[in-house]
Amino acid sequence: MAKETPSLRLVWLALGLALLASCQMSPSGSAPQAVQVAGVVGGTETVPTLLGKPLDLQGVPLTKEGEAYGGPVLPGMVVVAQGTDQGNVLRLQSLEVRVELKGPIAALDGNAGTLTVLGQQVITDANTRIYEKVGGSYRNLLLSDLAVGDWVEIQGTATESGVLATYIERHPGQDSQVELEGRATNLDQAAKRFTLNGYTVDYAQAKVVGAPTEGVWVEVKGTLSGTTVLATKVAFKTSGNNGYGASRRVELEGPILGLDEAAKTFGLLGYTVDYSAARVTGTLADGVYVEAKGQVAANDPTLFHAQLVKVKYPRSYPAKAEAEGAVSAIDHGQGTFALGSLGFYVDPNTILKRDDPDGPIAFTDIQVGDYVEVKYDPSRTEEGRYYAVKVELEHR
Question: Are 274 and 265 in contact (CB under 8 A)?
C-alpha cells in the first residue's frame, strides 16, 4: 500500500474539471482532441503555454478559486484548463487558476530561498516566478525584493511540510484577505472554531463544505484579525464532498515535493503520486519538474498511480540575481558563456530551457547572438564566472 499524504488541491480540481482519459497532445494536422490539463503555465507573459503548447485564450472565461478573474495568465501559475488540442495550439473553453496560500510574510531567508506565510513554509527556486502589479502591467521581482510584512499570493505544489512555489505575487498595501490550508485541530463544533497552522479559525459566518471533523485537511478563505481568521468559506476534505467518480487516466506537469523513496510516492499538484509501478526517466528529488502519466485510484481521488514519470528539469536552487542580453561568447566544451562583461558557467543542475516553443534544451543549442535570460548566484564563482542556476533562451 502506498503511503498517502493529503490532497491539497485535488478536490477543487475535481469540482471544476474531471481530467479526461488520454491527455496526449494531438500531432499537427490530426483531428482536434478534447483535453483537460492540470499544470504549471510556461512560455511568456504574452504567449502562455501548457504542456509546451501556446494557449488560445480568446473569449475564454477565466476564474480564480471559483470566482471571476480578469487578470493575465502568467508563467508560473497553476491552472486547470479544458478545451481542444488544435495541433499547434490549445484552444481553451475555460481556465481556472489555483491558489495555495495568501497572506503576510512572517519570516524570510534569502540565502535558503524560503519564506513563512500563515505558519506554512514556502520554498522558492529558479523556477519560481515573482511578480508585482504596477499600474496595468506586471513586473518581475527577485526574492530579495520581498520583505517581512508583504502580502503575497502563493501558487505551486503543496504538502504537509510546505509549499514549493511556482508563482508568487506581491499585493500592494495591507490586504486582510487570506487563504490557507492544513489539518484542523482543536475542533469545537459548538463554538464553530478550530486551530490551523497556529491560527484560530472562526467559521461561524462561513460557507461550509463537507463535515467538520477533527484532524482532516481543510481549506480556508477569510479575513485576518491578529491570529484569528474570520472565515468566509471552509472546505473540510471529508468523503462525500469531492465529486469524483470512476478512475481515469490523467497527465500532470509540475514540480514535486515530499519525495518518499521507500514508499515510492511524492506530491504533485494536489495528488499523492505512487510511482512504484512506473517507468521513471531521470533522477527524482524534491524540486525536480516532472511529467507524470497514469491513473487516479478508483477508491481514492487523491491517489495517482503513475505509469510514466519523466524528469523535465533538474532540481533547482534559489537565484539571487538575474541578467539578460545577447550571448557574446560561448564555450560548449567548457560549459561557459558570457553576456558582455558578465561571465557564467553551467553544470548538470543548471536549468536550460527555451520559452518558444516551451521546453528543455541542451547547452549546445545556445549560440553566440542568442538572447537569453540568466538567473544566477553571484556568491558561487569559478575563474571569475558566476554560477548560472537557470538559462532561458528567449524567442525574439
Answer: yes
Distance (Å, rounded) from C-alpha 32 to C-alpha 85? 5
Backbone angles phi, psi at 283, to 5 degrees: -100, 125
Read off the pTM: 0.86
Phi (first) and psi of residue 23, to 5 degrees: -90, 35
Q: What is the pLDDT of residue 308?
A: 95
CA distance 129 to 115: 14
The bridge status of strand 101-109 relative to strand 151-159 is antiparallel
pLDDT < 50 positions in the chain: 1-28, 240-247
Query: Which DSSP symbol is given to 396?
Result: -
Do residues 90 and 28 make contact, with C-beta atoms less than 8 angstroms apart?
no
Instruction: Tell me which amino acid residue 15 is.
Output: L
Q: Which of 324, 317, 384, 321 is nearest to 350 (CA)?
A: 317
Hunting for cell 484560530 — which residue is that?
200
99-144: pLDDT as tens digits:
999 999 999 999 999 999 999 999 999 999 999 988 888 999 999 9
79: cell is 491552472
Distance between CA 132 and CA 118 in Å, rounded?
20
Q: With beta carbons less than 8 A apart as the criterion, state whether 270 and 237 touch.
A: no
